[in-house]
Structures are given as structure tokens and as C-alpha cells.
């Protein structure tokens, strides 16, 4: 059975990275991705006479395999690549990296061994792209994406700009409405396309495909982009090399800039040499006309205005920019004013810092829409800088963050401290003066937890603090009455029960139980409506379509449940999908419903046991061997108890001057049974050592008992392992479905959702307890206690003959 998707990618990266040596990741990627391209095309198209790519004689992956171990392997690889490039018009694309470069790959035996091992990595029998049956979920495309992301992470500042994080690309594609491109002849263009990742994510949103155009200045990065298009089955995409500012490739017959239905870009931030090769004041394409010429040492607005000029009269676009473009003054302030007055800006989305690979600064998305621009009277803003998760040395948007941004922007939903429709009148007034800095209009700073001075002085819980928990009281109105009573002072409350009972009251309350039932019912409705989809997974199922369907439905179902955040529930499913379920579904789409029994091997390749790729043993044991599990648990408990008794005896009698185990300790400090028996034999008839004899005898008996129990466990385990394997082999298709869908997937998701619901009420209990402890000891009371304690200390000091 095929290796799991996630394991394949990580092992491929680890293997490749281990061979990198001293070479910078930004260069090493050119070698790895070319080999991946050759492997994929050879697997996919070698025997297909009607394929989009020709594998010529001497120009395929098997020809690389023949070179392993040869002294001229580097030159040989270059020749194989040259043949493949020439046969398919890919010269200057896949032959950019020199596999015979001793400066980068070492010379002689070092190069020979490194390249031999590198080819061997791609020989992995599990890395067979000809077997990929999950149409629309191309294994290669995802593998390429995985490697690109890792190379971007490793490449460091300024060298990782060839890759736009997939999460950001997906947001851009959705908010500009790529899904509305219903014809293949619609166009999308990226003037700084890098490896093409942003273009491909945009194209992936279209239902019937789209015509792709891109330009990239760097030779090697442009090569990556072209390969990326081929590997994602977009060989017709036009990706040209060149500087899109000084020498834009795509022009109309009259020499003016070609325009497109969609224009997207993630240009280098604050590019200082953007004017190279051009005279900005005399731009041949009129990109700065009516706006102003961007500053000489900062190219942000140069790229932005190029994007604006390239959008059709009813087209859409988006660009990734540093936040500085929103508020910097002087000529940039003037350009921004002119741009706002044209009303092309539909929205601005502020993103978290440290998302991108070329910089750690926060960025924003500026969304353009020329259609009906003249009637636009506001800009929709989102401040999403808090929605992320740490991922190594970078921040990463979660699925919930992406979905929330897209939902809110698409539906123009105003959420306090998150999103707002900002009137152009407000932006252009004297106070704001065309400043678009998002915090001016949306302050998402958490409100300070202000202490109540009167409560500190006189006690009681401020009603305002309890009112601030109103989202809970909307669901638990009577619970509030059961927890609090009026204080003698207006505006304050007392806690009715003891503070130690708060959590018990909340979790035992009828309203909590009723809310729990609502959550469980909602989840069960989702489960019942999607069970057929899961049950009908088969060879050729498209995993990405499946998860999209079931995840959108769980989001819709929980949108009707108050208090609980629907995006948190959505994330529960998406996290489980990414960590476990995705691998399972890809295996099922490849091999259908079976137990997935595989051999477990040690590092030398020797088979040491067996396992199941799909059904964890503990699930089968719990379902079919509950009595056997109980037997194992009993034996294991007995072993633990014996081990504890032995440890206690060693602590009591094996330390200090009278170490009764000193004669039975080996050089490593352990106590051996053989030495103990030898010592017992020596002192057995000597009354002087009676106490030691009793201790050693008891210890020896415990050791023997422990050995017997462990031996029994081993015997039972061996026998049971055979029975368990037989059960796996006899499982019917229906039984396998039940084990995977019900006992694995549904059960795990149910636990995650229950945990989410429990966390909500834990947070309520924690906040109430925090407020109680904050005000339960008023300042006068503390002062009196301090005075009393001081008096007691003085009295003790006086008795001892001291005075302060």
C-alpha cells in the first residue's frame, strides 16, 4: 500500500535537505524541483502517445537511474535533462541548474555519491505518480507546494520571495471572485509571479479553468514558475522573463499595456531599484498618469499602479503590500488620495506579521474592483492581524482564519473590532486626510481589564464585570441568578455559593445540559447528513472536494448555534483532516476499503511485526477484544505495582551506610538477580546477616514474580497478536467502514467538539473565580490583617528581647 501523503512529503524533504550540505536552500531547490519534474513527467506520460509532454529516448527518469554510481553522473544528468527540454520546448526552463557544477555539488567521489543518493530518493517506490487516482488532488502538485514552502522557509530574508504562502493566495483568489470566471478564455495576470504559486491558487478557484499570464524577472524563479504550471497541468500558461515595470511583456497591438479580467501580485516590498531601465516621469504606458510618480527609492506604488493599469474596465485585482502604503505621506500620500478618489479600492485586509518568507513585517491586501467604481462610496476594511498560529519561525493562517476573512469580506459583514464599512467621506475628511491606516478605523486592541477601586475598598463584584459576560447569560439566564445575589450597595453583586463550587454549579446546571444537547444534536445532524458521503468513498474519490463539502456543511450547521464559535468547530474538523483524516481518505481513494495491513521493519529492513495504516489496533481491541484488553490491563497493573515495590525496597535498603544491596550491584550500579542469589547463598546460615537475608529474599521473590508476570504478558501478547492479525484479515468491508468512519473519524471529531464546548464553560468559571478572588478581601480588611500580624510579630520580638 502507498505511503501516506504527509509521510511522503516530510521524508522527501528530510532526505533532500540532508544532502544539501553547504549549499543555500535558494539554490538547492533548483536541483530538487527539476528532478521532481522529470520523475513526475516520466511516471505520468512515458507510455502516453497523446500526452502534453514527450519523454524522448534517453530523456526520462529511468535514464537518470542508469547513471547512478558512474563517475560522469553530473554530465550525464545534464544530457538527459537537455533531451527532455529540447523535445518539449523547455530549454532555459528545466536545464537552468548545472548538475556538473563542482563548486556547488562537490567534485569527484563527493559529487558522484551525492547525485547517486539524490536520484535514489526519487526512486522511492511510493513516489509513483502514475498510480495517482485521486483526480483533482494531484499528489505531485501538493508535493511541489510542500517543497517550495520548505525551501522558502530555509532561504532566509530576500530569497524566499519566490513563494506566496498558500493561505494568502487562497484568500486573494476568493475575495476577488475567481470563482465567477466561468469561461476558460477569462484571463488572470501576475506581473511578479515568482514560482507561480499565487496564479495557480487563483486558477484553482475557477470552475472551468482560466487563461494564465505571468512575468518574472529572475531566470531561475521563472523556470520554477513554468515547471509549476506544467506540473499542475497548465502547460498553456504564458510565463515570461523580464522586468514588468521597465519592460512589460504583455502588450496590445498599439503598444499599450494588455489588460486582464483579474490581476494579482505579491511584489518585493519597498523595492529600491524599481526605476532601473526606465524613466518614470516619461512612462510609455501611462501607469502614473493622474496619480503621480512614486518615489525613486520605493517601488511599492509603482507595482500597485501597474496592477491598477492592467485591470480591465470591469476587472478585479489584489496586491500584497506593506502597511506603509496606507499611511506614508509626501508623494505617496498624493498618489493614495488620487487612487481613493478614483474609487477603485473595494477593500483592505490587514494580515498578521511574519506570514511572508521575504520579510517579517505585517502586510495587507488591497482589493481593487473597477466594475461600478463610480458608485462606490466606502472601503471595506478588515483588521485580521490577530488571527494566526505559530508554525516554527513563521506565523501561519489557520483554516478558520481564512474562512472568516473570506466570509466577512464577501458578505461585507461588520464585526466590532474586526471589520467595518468605512465611508469615503470619513477617509477624506480633515482629520484623516486620505490616511488608510486600518487602526484609525478599526481598533482591535483588547479592552483593558479595569479594576474597580470601590470594590477593592468595600468588597462586592461590580455588576459591569458580570454584564460583560452577556454572551453566556443569553444562553444561561437562570444560571446568573443562581450564582449571584444583590450586594447591599447598588451596582455590585455577591457570589451565592462558595467559590470552590462555581465550576460544579456551571457544569451541573440544567441550562448547561440543555446547551450541550443543542450542540450534540447539531453535530449529529451534520453527521447523519454527511455519513453517506463518507460511506461512499471509493477509488477515484476526490479528497479535496469531499472535505470542502463536509466542512462547509459543519460551518453552516453551527452558524445557528449561539455562544459557540462556528469557526472553532470548523477548525476542529480541518485540524483533524490535516493531521489524520486526509491521509486516510487519500489511501482509500487509492486502494478502496481494506485494513491496510503493512509490515513493520527495523532500520536494517528486517520485519519485526505488522500494523494497519488505517485502523489503529486500540480501536479493534476495544471493539472486539474488550475482555482481552481487561486481562492485559490487569497484568500491566500488577507489573507496575511490583516495580514500585522493588523501587521502594531499593530506596529503603539500598542507600546509606547499611546498603544491603552493595554486594549484589554490578559495575553499572544495577542490582542483578544472579548476584543476589549468590549473596543469599553466602549469608544463608549466618545469623549475623539475618536482617539482610530477609530483605534480599523478599527482593528476590518480588523479582521472580515480576519476571513471571512479564513472561506471561509476553506469551499472551504473542498469542493475542496472532489472533488480532487474523481478525484484521477477516474484517469485512462493512466492518472496516464502521471502524474507520464511526470508531475513528466520528469519535475523534465528537471528542474535539465536546472539548470545545467544555472549554467555553471553563472560561466562564475561570473569569468568575478571577473576579471573586480580586475583590474578596477589601483593602481595609487587608490593612487590619496586616496590622494584626505586625502586632503579633512585635510581641514575639519583644519576648526575644528585641524592640523595633
> What is the mean predicted local confidence, pLDDT?
88
Give the CATH level 1 class of the domain at 1-155. Mainly Alpha
Query: Can you tell me the CATH superfamily of the domain at 1-155?
Result: N6 adenine-specific DNA methyltransferase, N-terminal domain
Q: Quick one: biggest sheet?
A: 9 strands, mixed
Helix content bin? 40-55%
CATH topology assignment of the domain at 1-155: Ferritin
DSSP strand count:
16
Provide the gyration radius in Å. Answer: 34 Å
Gap from first CA to last CA: 83 Å
Question: Which parts are unreliable, with pLDDT below 50 for 5 consecutive residues or more?
Answer: 133-137
Class inferred from helices and paired strands: alpha/beta
> Quick one: overall form?
globular
Strand order of the largest sheet: 3-2-1-4-5-7-6-8-11
* CATH architecture call of the domain at 1-155: Up-down Bundle
Number of helices: 28
Mind explaining what this structure looks like?
By secondary structure, the chain is α/β, with parallel strands linked by helices. Among the domains are: 1-155, N6 adenine-specific DNA methyltransferase, N-terminal domain (Ferritin, Up-down Bundle); 620-730, no CATH class. It is 51% helix and 10% strand. It contains 28 helices and 16 strands. A nine-stranded mixed beta sheet has the order 3-2-1-4-5-7-6-8-11, with helices on both faces. A three-stranded antiparallel beta sheet has the order 12-14-13. The chain has a two-stranded antiparallel sheet with strand order 9-10. Strand 1, helix 9 (197-204) and strand 2 form a beta-alpha-beta unit. The longest helix is centred in the last third of the chain and has 43 residues, at 733-775. The protein is globular, with a radius of gyration of 34 Å. The relative contact order is 0.06.
Amino acid at each position: 500500500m502507498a505511503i501516506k501523503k504527509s509521510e511522503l512529503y516530510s521524508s522527501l524533504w528530510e532526505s533532500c535537505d540532508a544532502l544539501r550540505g553547504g549549499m543555500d536552500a535558494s539554490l538547492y531547490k533548483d536541483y530538487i524541483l527539476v528532478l521532481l519534474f522529470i520523475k513526475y513527467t516520466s511516471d505520468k506520460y512515458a507510455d502516453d502517445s497523446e500526452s502534453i509532454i514527450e519523454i524522448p529516448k534517453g530523456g526520462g527518469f529511468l535514464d537518470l537511474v542508469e547513471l547512478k554510481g558512474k563517475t560522469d553522473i553530473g554530465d550525464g544528468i545534464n544530457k538527459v535533462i537537455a533531451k527532455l527540454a529540447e523535445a518539449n520546448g523547455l530549454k532555459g526552463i528545466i536545464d537552468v541548474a548545472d548538475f556538473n557544477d563542482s563548486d556547488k555539488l562537490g567534485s569527484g567521489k563527493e559529487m558522484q555519491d551525492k547525485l547517486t543518493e539524490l536520484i535514489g530518493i526519487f526512486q522511492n517506490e511510493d513516489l509513483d505518480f502514475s498510480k495517482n487516482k485521486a483526480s483533482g488532488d494531484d499528489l505531485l502538485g501538493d508535493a511541489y507546494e510542500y517543497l517550495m514552502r520548505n525551501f522558502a522557509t530555509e532561504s532566509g530574508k530576500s530569497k524566499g520571495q519566490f513563494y506566496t504562502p498558500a493561505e494568502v493566495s487562497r484568500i486573494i483568489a476568493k475575495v476577488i471572485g475567481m470563482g465567477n470566471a466561468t469561461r476558460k478564455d477569462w484571463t488572470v495576470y501576475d506581473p511578479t509571479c515568482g514560482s507561480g504559486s499565487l496564479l495557480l491558487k487563483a486558477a484553482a478557484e475557477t470552475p472551468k479553468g482560466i487563461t494564465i499570464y505571468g512575468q518574472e524577472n529572475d531566470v531561475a524563479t521563472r523556470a520554477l514558475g513554468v515547471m509549476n504550471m506544467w506540473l499542475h497541468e497548465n502547460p498553456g500558461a504564458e510565463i515570461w522573463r523580464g522586468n514588468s515595470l521597465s519592460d512589460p511583456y504583455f502588450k496590445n497591438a498599439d503598444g499599450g499595456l494588455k489588460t486582464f479580467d483579474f490581476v494579482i501580485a505579491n511584489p518585493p516590498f519597498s523595492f529600491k531599484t524599481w526605476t532601473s531601465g526606465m524613466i518614470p516621469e516619461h512612462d510609455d504606458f501611462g501607469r502614473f498618469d493622474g496619480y503621480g510618480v512614486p518615489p525613486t527609492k520605493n517601488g511599492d506604488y509603482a507595482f500597485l499602479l501597474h496592477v491598477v493599469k492592467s485591470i480591465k474596465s470591469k476587472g478585479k485585482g489584489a496586491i500584497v503590500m506593506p502597511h506603509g502604503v496606507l499611511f506614508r505621506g509626501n508623494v505617496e500620500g498624493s498618489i493614495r488620495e488620487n487612487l481613493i478618489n478614483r474609487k477603485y479600492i473595494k477593500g483592505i485586509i490587514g494580515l498578521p506579521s511574519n506570514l511572508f518568507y521575504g520579510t517579517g513585517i505585517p502586510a495587507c491586501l488591497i482589493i481593487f474592483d473597477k466594475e461600478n467604481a463610480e458608485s462606490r462610496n466606502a472601503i471595506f476594511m478588515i483588521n485580521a492581524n490577530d488571527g494566526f498560529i505559530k508554525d516554527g519561525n513563521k506565523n501561519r493562517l489557520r483554516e478558520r482564519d481564512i474562512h472568516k476573512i473570506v466570509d466577512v469580506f464577501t458578505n461585507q459583514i461588520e464585526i466590532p473590532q474586526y471589520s467595518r464599512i468605512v465611508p469615503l467621506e470619513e477617509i477624506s475628511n480633515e482629520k484623516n486626510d486620505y490616511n488608510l491606516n486600518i487602526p484609525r478605523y478599526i481598533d482591535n486592541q483588547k479592552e483593558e481589564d479595569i479594576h474597580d477601586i470601590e470594590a477593592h475598598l468595600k468588597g462586592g463584584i461590580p455588576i459591569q464585570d458580570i454584564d460583560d459576560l452577556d454572551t453566556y447569560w443569553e444562553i444561561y439566564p437562570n444560571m446568573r441568578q443562581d450564582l449571584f445575589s444583590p450586594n447591599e450597595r447598588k451596582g455590585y453583586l455577591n457570589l451565592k455559593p462558595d467559590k470552590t463550587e462555581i465550576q460544579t454549579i456551571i457544569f451541573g446546571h440544567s441550562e448547561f445540559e440543555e446547551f450541550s444537547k443543542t450542540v450534540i444534536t447539531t453535530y449529529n445532524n451534520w453527521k447523519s447528513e454527511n455519513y453517506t458521503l463518507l460511506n461512499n468513498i471509493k477509488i477515484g474519490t476526490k479528497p479535496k472536494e469531499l472535505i470542502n463539502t463536509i466542512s462547509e456543511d459543519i460551518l453552516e450547521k453551527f452558524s445557528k448555534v449561539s455562544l459557540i464559535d462556528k469557526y472553532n468547530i470548523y477548525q476542529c474538523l480541518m485540524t483533524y483532516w490535516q493531521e489524520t483524516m486526509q491521509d486516510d481518505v487519500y489511501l482509500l481513494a487509492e486502494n478502496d476499503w481494506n485494513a491496510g495491513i503493512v509490515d513493520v521493519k527495523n532500520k536494517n529492513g528486517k520485519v519485526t511485526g505488522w500494523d494497519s495504516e488505517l485502523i489503529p489496533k486500540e480501536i479493534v481491541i476495544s471493539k472486539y477484544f474488550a475482555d482481552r484488553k481487561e486481562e492485559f490491563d490487569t497484568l500491566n497493573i500488577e507489573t507496575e505495582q511490583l516495580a514500585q515495590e522493588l523501587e521502594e525496597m531499593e530506596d529503603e535498603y539500598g542507600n546509606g551506610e547499611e546498603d544491603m544491596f552493595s554486594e549484589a550491584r554490578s559495575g553499572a550500579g544495577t542490582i542483578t538477580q544472579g548476584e543476589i542469589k549468590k549473596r543469599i547463598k553466602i549469608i544463608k546460615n549466618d545469623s549475623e546477616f539475618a536482617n539482610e537475608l530477609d530483605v534480599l529474599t523478599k527482593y528476590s521473590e518480588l523479582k521472580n514474580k515480576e519476571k513471571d508476570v512479564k513472561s506471561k504478558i509476553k506469551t499472551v501478547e504473542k498469542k493475542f497478536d496472532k489472533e488480532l492479525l487474523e481478525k484484521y484479515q477477516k474484517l469485512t468491508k462493512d466492518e472496516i467502514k464502521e471502524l474507520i468512519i464511526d470508531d475513528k473519524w466520528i469519535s475523534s471529531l465528537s471528542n474535539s467538539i465536546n472539548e470545545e464546548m467544555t472549554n467555553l464553560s471553563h472560561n466562564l468559571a475561570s473569569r468568575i473565580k478571577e473576579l471573586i478572588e480580586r475583590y474578596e478581601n477589601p483593602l481595609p480588611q487587608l490593612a487590619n490583617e496586616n496590622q494584626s500580624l505586625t502586632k503579633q510579630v512585635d510581641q514575639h520580638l519583644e519576648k526575644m528581647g528585641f524592640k523595633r
